[in-house]
UniProtKB/TrEMBL annotation:
Keyword Cell membrane: no
Gene3D superfamilies: YVTN repeat-like/Quinoprotein amine dehydrogenase
InterPro entries: PcG_WD-repeat, WD40/YVTN_repeat-like_dom_sf, WD40_repeat_CS, WD40_repeat_dom_sf, WD40_rpt
Top-level taxon of origin: Eukaryota
WD repeats: 168-210, 214-255
Recorded family membership: Belongs to the WD repeat ESC family.
Pfam families hit by this protein: WD40
Keyword Transcription appears in the UniProt entry: yes
Stretches with biased composition (Low complexity): 1-14
Disordered: annotated segments: 1-58
Protein name: Uncharacterized protein
Gene that this polypeptide is encoded by: 20194765
Length: 427
């Protein structure tokens, strides 16, 4: 069902319409630099200019706002994700979740057009979706979408049929984030307010394992991720802590194998026994001093964010015996802080950053509508250049950003129910 009120707001912007170009070196706009009088120009000419080799190079990343849209519910959109399971014949697809609505869109590759393909409205008006994640049906070869929120029910939808095909109930409270394994398209991780993580097999509809308990989190979980090799989970939340759990643990490996072999239709089989893991393999509370609302693996490193206006890049365990940046944590483990990405106006929580598929672009929004983008395609992380994207009409909190697989499109979702499309332009 297409939301007509949405289509009426589908407005294409001219590249010169209300776009503020920000000079990242001076923090001024193009108009500010042109308001220089003759006298100040002469004074400036007497000052010693910095040698060219000392000047910071500009980022290779450049984006222009090309379109914005508004969803009919007008409520905050908490999550957005592009479909990264890519085939040449598939156009860029992304999903947004907010209020009790899940929407699926298609982006044109040749124009700024964004087309609403389908909308699922939950029958419970009190539902509020917080997160979504894409995977692929390995039998049919078509994309599938998982979404969840305040009711704690995980919905599995098929964009082909435009309707839910499965529901998973297990968490006692809301689900704040979903992540699929990159190594197994059937393995789904859910992060919940009930202080636990759950691992699901969506092919056999079984809960494989529950992570939490004695040495688990002590407060609401907000974010989590599975590393690229599918061997490690990381989780974080309101207790300021990070927990790392090994998926290559023999017990977990055995539970995953059993979940594929288990036949629910065979009445002679005993109920599937979900494995419980109470002790994480790594724990620390010393990276952030407030709620940790987003965490992602970046290779073997970790990127994490709290409501303190910075994203921290760190590594569990010590980098080397000569590294002076290591921190021995209160839990007896060791971490190495490598870099901090600073930005501004992001003191409220549940504002999540994003990485593109190749992990070369890092982006996060602020509570004033600004978008901060870093080019991670550098040899030294300290050389990552920051780009600030602004639009005068975008002035509410940007809850999350979706980045297309090829890194050419950024979709920002906001508290006022709007979506903003930014297209990459030649540097």
């Amino acid at each position: 069902m297409i939301n007509n009120s949405f289509n009426s707001s589908n407005t294409t912007l001219d590249s010169s319409d209300d776009i503020e170009s920000v000079n990242t070196e001076t923090g001024s706009t193009a108009d500010d630099t042109s308001r220089c009088t003759d006298s100040t120009a002469k004074q400036g000419s007497l000052r010693r200019k910095r040698p060219k080799k000392d000047r910071e190079p500009k980022s290779k990343l450049q984006f222009t706002c090309t379109n914005y849209l508004m969803e009919g519910h007008g409520q905050p959109i908490f999550g957005v994700q592009f479909n990264e399971i890519y085939r040449d014949e598939w156009p860029p697809l992304f999903a947004s979740v907010g209020s009790n609505q899940i929407s699926i869109y298609e982006c044109s590759r040749t124009s700024p057009e964004v087309t609403l393909l389908s909308t699922h409205v939950d029958t419970d008006s009190e539902e509020n979706f917080f997160t979504c994640a894409w995977s692929i049906d390995d039998e049919l070869g078509v994309p599938i979408l998982a979404a969840a929120g305040s009711r704690g029910i995980i919905r599995i939808l098929s964009p082909c049929t435009h309707r839910p095909v499965k529901n998973y109930i297990g968490h006692g409270m809301s689900v704040n984030e979903l992540r699929f394994s990159t190594k197994d398209s059937n393995i789904l991780l859910s992060i919940s307010k009930d202080h636990t993580l759950r691992l699901w097999n969506i092919k056999t509809d079984l809960c494989i394992a529950i992570f939490g308990g004695v040495e688990g989190h002590r407060d609401e979980l907000l974010s989590g991720d599975i590393d690229f090799d599918g061997q490690l989970l990381i989780s974080c939340g309101m207790d300021h802590s990070f927990k790392i759990w090994k998926l290559d643990n023999p017990y977990i490996v055995d539970a995953i194998e059993k979940s594929y072999k288990y036949d629910k239709k065979n009445k002679n089989d005993k109920p599937f026994k979900t494995y419980s893991q109470h002790f994480p393999d790594f724990s620390t509370r010393d990276i952030h001093n407030n709620y940790v609302d987003c965490v992602r693996w970046w290779g073997k490193f970790v990127l994490s964010k709290s409501c303190d206006n910075k994203i921290v890049c760190w590594k569990p365990n010590r980098l080397s015996t000569f590294d002076t940046r290591f921190i021995k944590t209160s839990d007896g483990h060791v971490t190495s802080v490598l870099h901090k990405f600073d930005f501004s106006a992001c003191e409220i929580w549940f504002m999540r950053f994003s990485l593109d598929y190749d992990q070369k672009i890092l982006a996060v929004g602020s509570q004033t509508g600004k978008i901060f983008v870093w080019d991670l395609d550098v040899e030294d992380i300290s050389d990552a250049r920051q780009l600030i994207l602004t639009h005068p009409k975008c002035n509410t909190p940007v809850r999350q950003l979706g980045i297309s697989r090829d890194g050419t499109i950024i979709i920002a979702v906001c508290d006022d129910g709007t979506l903003w499309r930014w297209d990459r332009t030649p540097a």
